[in-house]
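anyone else get weird line breaks when pasting these?? whatever heres mine. first is seq + tokens for prot A
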Amino acid sequence: MTKKIGFIGAGNMASALAGGLLARGWRPADIALSDASPAQLEAHEASGVITTTDNLRLLEHADVLVLAVKPQVMSAVLKPLAALAQEKRPLVISIAAGIPVASIERWLGGTLPVVRAMPNTPALVQSGATGLFANAATSPGQRAVAESILGAVGLTLWVEDESLIDAVTAVSGSGPAYFFYVMEAMMAAGRELGLDEKTARALTLQTALGSAQMAITADVGPDELRRRVTSPGGTTERAIAAFDDADLKAVFARALKACAARGTELAGQLGSAE
């Protein structure tokens, strides 16, 4: 049976997922997007997908409901859908950060199959990494559907404890910002060493791309790849020693723990709305 997917929210991530599904052969007639802003929907009309500003109309025709709205408005968006959601019992997939499954169930009127997904922004270029958690009401078949939807924009991995979504957020959800931060620092350092802006940028970004591709395809871990580049007494060894002097690994550990802790805090704040 072909699943009909409805996205509440037509922003960047919903657009990326819808585009990824279309690229994988999903029929436009089986994909619908709703948004309070008609302007957000206009960009999708050329693809042939269904668009509407009415969330109830969207849910009436959806076997899978993807929640792609800001966490702060999730309660207000879901409560009017509760009666119909309990009648239709769709698979609900939330890509909103910080909203626990229990809150989604409460706002939708009771237990439903719910999957929490934490994608990251490289999904916008079909290179995402998404952590997934499914509640007990989600069947194996529904888990497969969720995986196929998020897999349209990159890698998917399951966690079996909802609390681990905060760890996923710390590693991959927020992770692109860490790499962008390193890129910023390398480009700035390159300019300080005398490179022009264009050259420093091109060398940094290509090196980041190539290093990631090597790490993905190699049969050894990043630690061994680093060792192979670090000749004793050479230039790279001197740079790594400077990182070690700054205790860079401990800095990263503190940063990711802080990120995960903030995720837990947000879940308590955002999920407590009545």
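and prot B, same format (seq, then tokens)
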Amino acid sequence: MNYLAHLYFAADSSESRIGNLLGDFCRGVELQQLSEATAAGLAQHRAIDRFTDQHPQVRQARLLFATNRRRFAGVALDLVFDHYLVKHWSLFSAEPFALYKTRLYQQLWQDRPLMPAAMARTVDYLVPQDWFGSYAELDTIGEALDRIAGRLRFANTFAGCIADLTEHQPQFEQLFLQFFPQLQAFVQQYQADNAFPLRI
């Protein structure tokens, strides 16, 4: 899952938000020095990623990508699932997305001094450029994926994922709507088993 989904499952605290994002920003971080709450957030991030990567419906979704882009499918699914989370937000939260996003941006901006440098730099762009708001448009997801493919340090043919996302849009959307409630149930059980506060 991508940034928005990981933050959705975080508890309402700076340490939990940072921990739940930390899976993407671990390089150079002394993990043994993390607070208990931040380490718990990181552990939850990793558990969510394991559950997602091993889920049969996610594996099925990867097969919808052209063979030359299939190695990139995990990255593409992370972003497109955030797109569908925004699109279907009212199914998963009683708080309107616009209000949630505004509050989340304020929290992330205030949390920057507590973040690893790479995470803080990302937030410096994420908030002013309204990344989460832009996730509402599928074309924006395609553009973001092309930028990611262009930054890879090896030759690849991953650009153009928007063609796959558009061609198989109904299947991707249906797979997400089937998968995400299962992920919610998994996270609730994971939090209960690890004595984390449940997200309401």
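btw re prot B: The CA atoms of residues 19 and 39 lie 6 Å apart. Residues 3-193 form one domain.
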